[in-house]
Design goal:
CATH architecture of the domain at 41-135: 2-Layer Sandwich
Largest sheet: 4 strands, mixed
CATH class of the domain at 41-135: Alpha Beta
Oligomer: single chain
Strand order of the largest sheet: 1-2-3-4
Structural class: alpha+beta
Shape: extended
Helix content: 40-55%
Number of strands: 4
Length: about 150
């Protein structure tokens, strides 16, 4: 009869042997890895980095309104939130290094839907201005993120 240590060793060896991939020469030649994927292919995303329930509600309403206003938006946006018990929640929308919209939201201010609608309109206008300024800016010796 085999001891428990010998059984463990046999089990480990069987696991290693059967988990090792076995490829023939034909299989190695037919495997191709596509590294042409880039992050530029992912566009029009509004990322939620809010903390509170109100921040998540703002993100949801803002992204819905932005989809209605600018359905063909190619820029990725991030909604941030910094809650403060004294002043309310600081909520801002950022694109790359540009802050496009910011507000201190206090629960006494009113409906989150109207604020999100206003934010979506302002962000859509600012994104149009950014696209237009990028078309007419001279970036011969600078990268787009440097100007």
């Amino acid at each position: 009869m085999l001891s428990t240590q010998a059984l463990r060793l046999a089990l480990i060896l069987c696991t290693i042997i059967f988990s090792y991939p076995c490829f023939s020469q034909e299989d190695n030649n037919s495997i191709e890895i596509n590294n042409s994927f880039s992050l530029d292919e992912i566009s029009g995303i509004v990322i939620d980095k809010a903390i509170t329930v109100k921040g998540h509600q703002f993100h949801r309403h803002f992204s819905d309104q932005l989809l209605l206003i600018a359905p063909s938006m190619k820029e990725n946006l991030i909604v941030y939130e910094r809650p403060s018990p004294r002043w309310g929640n600081l909520i801002w929308v950022q694109h790359e290094a540009n802050r496009l919209f910011s507000i201190f939201w206090n629960p006494r201010m009113g409906d989150m839907h109207s604020i999100a609608e206003t934010a979506a309109q302002q962000v859509a206008q600012k994104l149009k201005k950014l696209r237009l300024s990028e078309l007419f800016s001279d970036t011969f010796d600078l990268e787009k993120s440097e100007f």
